[in-house]
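Hi,

I'm pasting everything inline rather than attaching a file, because the server keeps stripping attachments. The sequence lines come first, and each chain or strand is labelled.
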Amino acid sequence: MRRKTKIKATQLVLLVAGLSLWECGSRLGWIDPFFFPAPSSIMGRLAEWFSSSDIWFDLGVTLLETVLSFVFGITGGIVLGIWLGLAPFARAVLNPFIKVFNAIPRVLLAPIYVLWFGLGLTSKVALGLTLVFFVAFFNTLQGVREVNPVVLANARLLKASKGALLRHVYLPSATSWILSSLRVSVGLAVLGAVVAEYLGSSMGLGHMIAQAEGVMDATGVFSGLVLLSAFVVALDAIVDRMEKRLLVWRPNQDHEEAELATR
Amino acid sequence: MEGLRKANAVELREVAVRFGDFTAVKEVNLDVADGEFVAVVGPTGCGKSTILNLVTGLLPAAAGAVSIFGKKLSGLNDVAGYMLQQEALLPWKTALDNVGLGLVFQGLSVEEARKRAAPWLAKVGLKGFEHRYVHQLSGGQRKRVAMAQTLIMSPKIVLMDEPFSALDVHTRRLMHRILLNLWQEDKRSLIFITHDLEEAIALADRVVVMSAGPGSRVVGEVRITLPRPRDVSELATTNEYLKLYRELWALLGAEVEKSYGSQDVNIDKVDKVDIKETQHAA
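And the predicted assembly:
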């Protein structure tokens, strides 16, 4: 407990020191507030945004896009991952195609999606979905293939049917992999939505940032970034809760570092 | 009907198993009567596990015949329960749910399976551990859960492949006591694979010795005349036990040497170790 307090205190000190240094530097003219607006002006801008109701609309749009691409991407990835994990023939056949698709820098699909699906919601969801899908797919595939063979043999000896094996052995075994993919996916779903908004849209956080950039308003861009990062942290906390609930069977470990490394 | 009942639970007749050019076992003859506890001992790599895989039907015999209760085995053996050597519990299920796993696979509801699994956990001395996950159980407790998981399905033939080899001596003795109690309560045919003579003598009605591989076969057997119920921890000091131990070692010792010889190990050294082990056991 004491160590925890110490860590928290140090974190607070670091935060305050960093922000004050930035603030002072900006006020004393060490750094140009045109490119690096002071924290106080960013806070001011955020307060201004939240004083009108428009911001909630934009946040809502981005959230909807994020959730949709997250849900569809994850579902598709898990289904395909389980299928290919259990079907070695299909896996061998599809392997090169998946590799090629995976090699495409997917953010660059955004212009194509705008061409195909227009400036509305669909193109944003399509991009987020594409980003999320591959992460979920590869993690599920890995999880299914890494099932402990002894555990599997034992379940077979107890006469488990194929469906029972999937439900009681493969899926739970893949859960920790799937969950770790969820955490990465949340960030990617937001990324997809915001980048697509940035490239062409009339609403959402990405649109707000694009607008601010268009008028050389660095404060607006920074405020958008702060808002986005708070957005992702909040979604992350939800996944965190899910993970704790689904993985009660696992000995307590500190996964945080490993997860940050995969980001 | 009467004839059926008299039939041996397991009969292996001149059975051979080959993996490509490699002959794992050949000319194996083994009978296990209904309700009999047979231990199979042999040097490392002699194909002891192969015998179990034959009885489960996982492995087809290249020659000879496998009969279960008088019927030739084809496909999987559905009256056998198999307890594996390694950890095989589902870590995402509690002790209770692991015990009831086979019942759920049979189509029972989870609630019903739990209801039936609870008394089995108590039988293996784990009352109060129902809701522990596997990582919260010790090695011996996990083995007990695995034992209950196998026995709850009331298999007519129980197969155990060195189930307690990873445990320390004291825990192993505890496992022996629990296993003997359960077996005496409801006598089923049991084939118990081990490399530990002490364990084999303490548990079995009959100990079968296999020769060194490849192409190993049954080289002899010793009927264990020790009275039941046996007190596993006191057995080792009795004269009868020592006599049986020597008799078995006379069969097994030569085979162990052969198997070490084929592995290019310095025989002199091994010999000394073996003698020491024997004295220690005595």
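The CA atoms of residues 40 and 147 of chain B lie 19 Å apart.

If the labels don't parse on your end, tell me and I'll reformat.
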